[in-house]
Amino acid sequence: MNITIRELRETDIEALSRIEAASFSMPWSARDFEDLLSRSYCIYLVAEVDGMVAGCCGMTNICNEGNIDNVVVAESFRGQGIAQKLMRELIALGESMGIEAYTLEVRVSNEVAIHVYEKMGFVSEGVRPRFYEKPTEDALIMWRH
Ligand SMILES: CC(C)(COP(=O)(O)OP(=O)(O)OC[C@H]1O[C@@H](n2cnc3c(N)ncnc32)[C@H](O)[C@@H]1OP(=O)(O)O)[C@@H](O)C(=O)NCCC(=O)NCCS
């Protein structure tokens, strides 16, 4: 299995929208991804496995703080370390740009994602009550300093 991590391209958007729709109750649309491409303060990475788009993760740089969002891997590619590889590359890229602190939100029930984020050095620093819809759920606020 040949995993490549690279920056998001316009040609990834169709595949990523399908992965989003299958993974989230409130998925990003193709338009949401298209908007990212024109924003220099957004960094988005894609995982390609043997030429197929397998997942992505991204970050918005707000005053040298990285707000991470949309960490997702297609169901058929999960459990092979792809999310961890994406996150490692995203943080390395952020560090090379001077970003020292990273934050994200995650559903309190999302044990797999929380495990991945803890492995990447994130710690829980609070709860945002009822942050998510469909279904309503609290968000864990995690930081990596
Ligand atoms: C969360 C997600 C991105 C993880 O992607 P992935 O490529 O499968 O993740 P990885 O393979 O890098 O790592 C998965 C880790 O979770 C662990 N894991 C699996 N099931 C678990 C469980 N029930 N509880 C805790 N950890 C679990 C695996 O053992 C592995 O850890 P390890 O490397 O220490 O053994 C993927 O499940 C996904 O896309 N989910 C739907 C979208 C989502 O919830 N995104 C996060 C939004 S905040």
Give the arrangement of secondary structure elements.
Blueprint lengths: L2 E5 L5 H11 L6 H8 L4 E8 L2 E11 L2 E9 L8 H15 L4 E7 L3 H9 L3 E10 L4 E8 L1
Parallel strand pairs: 4-5
Antiparallel strand pairs: 1-2, 2-3, 3-4, 5-7, 6-7
Bound molecules: coenzyme A.
What descriptors fit this protein?
145 residues; alpha+beta; Aminopeptidase; seven-stranded mixed beta sheet; 4 helices; binds coenzyme A
What does this structure look like?
- With 145 residues, the chain is α+β, with helices and mostly antiparallel strands.
- The protein has one domain: Gcn5-related N-acetyltransferase (GNAT) (Aminopeptidase, 3-Layer(aba) Sandwich).
- Helices cover 30% and strands 40% of the residues.
- It has 4 helices and 7 strands, in the order βααβββαβαββ.
- A 7-stranded mixed β-sheet has the order 1-2-3-4-5-7-6, with helices on both faces.
- β6 and β7 form a beta hairpin.
- It is globular.
- The model has no long low-confidence stretch (mean pLDDT 96).
